[in-house]
Specification:
The chain is α+β, with helices and mostly antiparallel strands. About 30% of the residues lie in helices and about 25% in strands. It contains two helices and four strands, in the order H-E-H-E-E-E. A hairpin with a 7-residue loop joins strand 3 and strand 4.
């Protein structure tokens, strides 16, 4: 009985490490830093874009918590409905000249 429980705990720890590694990689993707925002044509595209993104740790779609304008960028605070992580996703509007 204890062997099955031990193996299950080992597996849970491995999955947590994998999720943490995926989150670290996510920081290099567009939108997850102020230096590399996602470019959109209109603010109406932002929230659907976020809802189409998935949490890298548990592969569940994000839910929009807050959408604010900050320093010429739009920042969306999202939340994973499964693990509860709350990343900030950065957007910038494409300005046609």
């Amino acid at each position: 009985m204890s062997r099955a429980r031990t193996r299950r705990r080992e597996l849970e720890r491995e999955l947590k490490k994998l999720g943490d590694a995926k989150l670290k990689l996510q920081a290099f993707e567009p939108g997850f830093s102020t230096a590399k925002p996602i470019t959109v044509d209109s603010t109406s595209q932002i929230e659907p874009h976020v809802r189409g993104m998935h949490c890298p740790a548990c592969d569940v779609a994000y839910q929009v918590v807050e959408h604010v304008a900050r320093n010429r960028q739009r920042v969306v605070r999202a939340r994973c409905t499964q693990c509860g992580r709350t990343p900030e996703i950065h957007f910038v509007l494409f300005v046609r000249s």
